């Protein structure tokens, strides 16, 4: 077996009361996170986005392959191109591809094929999954790619909320146009398109209920 280098775990054991408080405080904060479709055009410093992406990059991954790339776009011309291409796909989705049931399930969100948030939000973060790595032309296998990238996206959304910003998880399907517009290599596939910024003035979101604890968990004690 290969002799890997190890370092001491940086861990500080907390008193039980502080653990309880931290768990509750995190929940109280994160439960106010909402998907937002109306963004302010107010700018966000690049440094903020960098730290948000670095936070996402701390997520665990299969064999520590970190099979993700976060492309952050603030360039107006690129954002406009992305919006135009996304709306073309979404128009086909809403008029031809989506089933009647799917369209009915979307009614509470009052959404349609038009996606102004893609040009209004100061930043777009496009998450790409790496099917494999390319090292000097050689394919290097990645493991548990969807699981790893999904976890990293969860970290990303939590970091955005913690920073006092809002976001939307957008998946215009198919998403190949993102690879083409951003000129990404062949081993990358678009996974999520996430506008990031401040909410627009008087922004509203649908009145929704989240499932209760007993609906999303089972405890075996």
Query: Helix/strand-derived class?
Result: alpha+beta
Supply the CATH architecture.
3-Layer(aba) Sandwich
Question: What is the CATH H-level superfamily?
Answer: NADH Oxidase
Number of helices: 8
Q: Over all CA atoms, what is the radius of gyration?
A: 20 Å
On the 0 to 100 scale, the average pLDDT is 96
Distance between the termini: 38 Å
CATH T-level fold name: NADH Oxidase
Query: What is the total tally of β strands?
Result: 6
What is the CATH top level name? Alpha Beta
Total number of distinct structural domains: 1
Largest sheet: 4 strands, antiparallel
Strand order of the largest sheet: 1-2-6-5
Instruction: Give the low-pLDDT segments.
Output: none
Portion of residues in helices?
Answer: 25-40%
Query: Which term fits the overall shape?
Result: globular
Q: What's the order of the H and E elements?
A: HHEHHHEEEHEHEH
Beta content: 15-25%
């Amino acid at each position: 077996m290969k002799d890997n280098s190890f370092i001491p775990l940086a861990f500080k054991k907390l008193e039980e009361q502080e653990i309880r408080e931290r768990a509750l405080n995190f929940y109280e904060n994160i439960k106010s996170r909402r998907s937002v479709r109306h963004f302010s055009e107010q700018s966000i410093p690049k440094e903020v986005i960098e730290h948000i992406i670095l936070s996402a990059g701390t997520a665990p991954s299969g064999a520590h392959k970190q099979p993700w790339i976060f492309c952050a776009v603030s360039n107006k011309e690129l954002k406009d191109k992305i919006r135009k291409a996304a709306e073309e796909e979404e128009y086909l989705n809403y008029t031809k591809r989506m089933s009647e049931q799917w369209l009915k399930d979307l009614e509470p969100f009052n959404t349609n094929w038009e996606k102004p948030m893609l040009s209004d939000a100061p930043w777009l973060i496009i998450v790409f999954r790496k099917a494999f790595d390319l090292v000097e032309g050689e394919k290097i296998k990645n493991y548990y790619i969807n699981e790893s990238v999904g976890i990293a996206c969860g970290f990303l959304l939590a970091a955005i909320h913690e920073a006092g910003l809002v976001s939307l998880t957008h998946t215009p399907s198919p998403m190949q146009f993102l690879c083409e517009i951003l000129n990404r290599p062949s081993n990358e596939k678009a996974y999520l398109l996430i506008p990031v910024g401040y909410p627009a003035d008087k922004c509203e979101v649908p009145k929704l209920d989240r499932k209760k604890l007993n609906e999303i968990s089972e405890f075996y004690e």
